[in-house]
Amino acid sequence: MKIFIDTAVLEEIKEVRDLGILDGVTTNPTLVSKTGKPWKEAILEILKEVPDKPVSVEVVATDTEGIKREAKELAKLGANVVVKIPCTEEGLRAVFELNAERAGVKTNVTLVFSPLQALLAAKVGATYVSPFIGRVDDISYDGLMVLEEIVEIYNLYGFETEIIAASIRHVDHVRRCAALGVDIATIPYKVIKQMYRHPLTERGLDLFLKDAKQAGISI
Ligand code: E4P
């Protein structure tokens, strides 16, 4: 499973990249606004730090022509730009037309909450699809169940669109995504940190260090 970080904070991206586990970045308007930086500056900084990894950047237009225009502009910012397009009728049409025109724009159909939306994203030839599992949980439904069905449908028909499990809230979401065989999980920084921490690792290390001192081990 590929690991993307779901953030627009440069320091978080650099830290996870330097740990050697980063495969890509996803942003959205909310995440960029939280940085307090001008939108374009924040995006260009990210693209520069991870030039060899896909970075999803979201359009704000809602009509097909506007989405296509923004998508083409965003794609010019870097070869690693993936344009995030909402799963609306206009958005799906924009993805279809960008592909038909061979515009060379990689797309990520976002705000996906159902298997049928994911099916349509694959049909129009999206590069990625982003089911939001946490937000489905928020409305008292089971986000992982939705994701599982999407994985099943994609496997049944051999769709090439890659699934990005998004809106991840905790480590158990990540574990279950990995067990489902999802292509990618886009994970917030705080959850990535929790993935390698374990109280037994910390307790075990404390004990080993104490015993090493007692035994006079020094290398
Ligand atoms: C996905 O690409 C989105 O940026 C993100 O995962 C949304 O998550 P949220 O529900 O925590 O806002």
Automatic annotation (TrEMBL):
Tagged with keyword Cytoplasm: yes
First-listed, main subcellular location of the protein, grouped into a coarse class: cytoplasm
GO CC aspect terms: cytoplasm
Domain of life: Bacteria
Protein localization: Cytoplasm
Alphabetized Pfam families for the sequence: TAL_FSA (PF00923)
MF-aspect GO terms: aldehyde-lyase activity
Transmembrane stretches, start-end: none
Gene3D superfamilies, sorted: Aldolase class I
Gene Ontology terms describing biological process: carbohydrate metabolic process; ketone catabolic process
InterPro entries membership: Aldolase_TIM, TAL/FSA, Transaldolase_3B/F6P_aldolase, Transaldolase_AS, TSA/FSA_arc/bac
Keywords for this protein: Cytoplasm, Schiff base
PROSITE patterns listed in its UniProt record: TRANSALDOLASE_1
Record protein name field: Fructose-6-phosphate aldolase
Natural source organism: Thermodesulfatator atlanticus
Gene: fsa
